[in-house]
Write a structure and sequence with these properties.
Elements: H1 8-73, H2 81-94, E1 98-105, E2 108-112, E3 136-141, E4 152-158, E5 164-170, H3 172-181, E6 187-194, E7 196-197, E8 200-201, E9 214-222, E10 225-233, H4 235-283, E11 287-296, E12 302-313, E13 317-319, H5 321-330, H6 334-349, E14 358-364, H7 366-369, H8 374-385, E15 390-396, H9 405-417, E16 421-427, H10 435-439, E17 444-447, H11 449-452, H12 463-474, E18 478-481, H13 487-495, E19 500-501, E20 510-511, H14 512-522, H15 530-535
Parallel strand pairs: 3-7, 12-14, 14-15, 15-16, 16-17, 17-18, 18-19
Antiparallel strand pairs: 1-2, 1-5, 3-4, 4-5, 6-8, 6-10, 9-10, 11-12, 11-19, 11-20, 12-13
Helix pairs in contact: 1-3, 1-4, 6-8, 8-9
The structure holds ligand C2E and calcium ion (2 copies).
Enzyme class: hydrolase
Catalytic activity: 3',3'-c-di-GMP + H2O = 5'-phosphoguanylyl(3'->5')guanosine + H(+)
Membrane topology: Multi-pass membrane protein
């Protein structure tokens, strides 16, 4: 019984199965976390952009109101203050937001809605930074002659004779606006810059915005200046939103993740159980081998057999070899299964006595072919069967890809040097392409039953089959025709120089004891299988 478990491949595949489960479990959870974070940030951005649209709209409206009031006096800026001052006073009282209207000349108040001409306080205003050169300007100053220690927004419009009309807007309006639309409970900070001068902040104490995400930064150009509004988010609030979203959606993500894990686990188990079933069947000795004779065309003798694996499951019955061999290949159990087969063959052949040079054909899968165990496995079989007259023929087919062609090649070269023959199986069919001829050394080509079936009832033509036979001859290879069932097929193939005939026409595969009896009776002179010929 071969060593089937545990092997490094099985451990690796268990680890990789666990890894797959872990990844599958994590995907919905991580997606939920990432999407939650993204959504929490989007909510904050949406709130900020709504607030900013409102604030900017209101600031524009306040500034335009003040500008329009100032513009009315631009043509009259040069008038005597006696007549102008009462009009300024009336206007300032009537226009919303505007505290005073002033005529500015060379950086000083020349005339004001708030003072009679004589009472205008002396001293620099605007600290000499009057924007006289510009037609219209906006400036936030920290204080005005009338209201100290409270910033004001100056809305300037150029007037007659180098003068300017300045509407003073109380900044409290803007601060209230910030406070109302972008409260500190929702945002870390809102910063408003209207034209030149100081930046207005919702919290007058400077708030550290480092680490706080900048949610909105809008600039609005208007006549004379730009309004710039920045709103920073509160990281704690984004976290809160994130937490709320996670609380809402995480149970769904967890459920989805559990479902996915269950699904993948089931898939893995069905794969695993197929593997387990095969390994268990090996341990339970449910396999046996049948041997199908090969008819030598020149000698008329039985010149070999092909060993074919059989699995009879208790309770289920026989399972088709092409089915379970494919599963064994997919589940990487083919090497231990073939090693088990070799042991069974050894045991069977121990009871045989065949003519020297007798071919014992054994099918090897690509995984075994390119593995490091092949040479020693075949050598062990060769040593065991040689005393009974048998020599080994490796039958190789391309059901799955040969991964390590170089290793496979060197295995075959080494084995051929020791007298093992190589047959290319299923030749010409889907499984086995011409590329095998290039890659591997070989002695025999086995023509697939599919081509034998193309021989028509009269035995007159089979073009592709003829081409394959010609190819084999020109390569110096011997030919086995498989699946020969009728006299016509046999005659056609013999006439074209095929070396061996294998098929129900001569004999079906049979268990070892049956073969031993059959060989004793028919080995030296093979005649058609009476059951077959009766039907044909
Ligand atoms: P294969 O290697 O091409 O084997 C020949 C198949 O043709 C066998 O089917 C055999 O029973 C069948 N056969 C022989 N003569 C006739 C005939 O005249 N008419 C018909 N209809 N069929 C005929 P089996 O035993 O069912 O095996 C099917 C395939 O399973 C094999 O095809 C081979 O690819 C795979 N297989 C069987 N045993 C083993 C094994 O021990 N190892 C590996 N790796 N593959 C095996
Ligand atoms: Ca075969
Ligand atoms: Ca075949």
């Amino acid at each position: 019984m071969p060593e089937v478990s545990p092997n490094p491949g099985a451990v690796r595949s268990r680890v990789s199965r666990l890894l797959v489960l872990l990844v599958v479990a994590l995907i919905p959870i991580l997606l939920c976390v990432a999407l939650g974070r993204y959504e929490a940030e989007r909510i904050a951005q949406r709130e900020a952009s709504l607030a900013s649209a409102f604030i900017v709209g209101q600031v524009v409206s306040i500034v335009e109101t003040a500008q329009s009031a100032a513009r009315t006096f631009a043509p009259r800026a040069n008038e005597a203050c006696d007549t102008l001052s009462p009009d300024l006073t009336r206007k300032a009282a009537a226009v919303p937001y505007v505290r005073t209207l002033n005529i500015l000349y060379e950086g000083r108040i020349d005339c004001s809605s708030a003072y009679s001409q004589q009472a205008v306080p002396d001293g620099g205003w605007l600290n000499g930074s009057a924007q006289a050169s510009q037609d219209e300007w906006l400036l936030i100053v920290d204080d005005t002659p009338m209201v100290r220690n409270r910033p004001s927004l100056l809305v300037g419009v150029a007037g007659e004779a180098g003068r300017a009309v300045v509407a003073v807007v109380d900044v409290q309006y803007l601060l209230d606006l910030l406070h109302g639309a972008a409260p500190l409970t929702v945002f870390r900070q809102a910063e408003l810059r209207v034209g030149e001068g100081a930046v207005l902040r919702e919290a007058m104490a400077l708030v550290n915005v480092r680490g706080a995400p900048l949610l909105v930064d809008v600039q609005k150009r208007m006549s004379g200046a730009t309004i710039d509004l920045k709103i920073y988010g509160r990281p704690e609030r984004i976290l809160e939103n994130w937490r709320a979203l996670l609380l809402r959606y995480m149970p769904w993500a967890a459920a989805f993740s559990a479902w996915l894990v269950w699904l993948v686990r089931r898939l893995q188990q069905s794969g695993q159980s197929r593997r387990e079933q095969l390994l268990r069947a090996i341990r339970a000795n449910e396999f046996h081998v049948e041997y199908q004779p090969l008819y030598g065309v020149e000698t008329g003798r039985c010149e070999g057999v092909e060993a074919l694996l059989r699995w009879v499951r208790p309770g289920t019955g026989a399972i088709r070899p092409d089915e379970f061999i494919q599963v064994a290949e997919e589940e990487h159990v083919i090497v231990p299964l073939t090693q088990h087969l070799l042991k069974l063959i050894e045991r069977d052949v121990a009871t045989w006595e065949v003519a020297p040079g007798f071919h014992l054909g054994v099918n090897f899968a690509p995984e075994h072919l390119s593995g490091v165990q092949l040479v020693s496995d075949v050598q062990a079989l060769r040593t065991a069967v040689a005393p009974h007259g048998a020599t080994i023929t490796l039958e190789i087919t391309e059901r799955t890809l040969v991964r390590n062609t170089e290793q496979a090649r060197s295995n075959l070269v080494a084995l051929r040097r020791e007298g093992v023959r190589v047959a290319i199986d299923d030749f010409g069919m889907g499984y086995c392409s011409l590329s095998y001829l290039e890659k591997f050394p070989f002695d025999i080509l086995k023509i697939d039953r599919g081509f034998v079936l193309t021989i028509d009832a009269q035995g007159s033509k089979a073009a592709v089959l003829d081409a394959i036979i010609d190819l084999a001859h020109s390569l110096g290879a011997r030919l086995v025709a498989e699946g020969v069932e009728t006299q016509v097929q046999r005659d056609y193939l013999c006439a074209r120089g095929v070396t061996y005939i294998q098929g129900f026409f001569y004999a079906r595969p049979m268990p070892s004891e049956a073969f031993v009896r059959w060989y004793r009776a028919n080995g030296a002179h093979m005649s058609p299988n009476p059951h077959m010929t009766a039907g044909t």
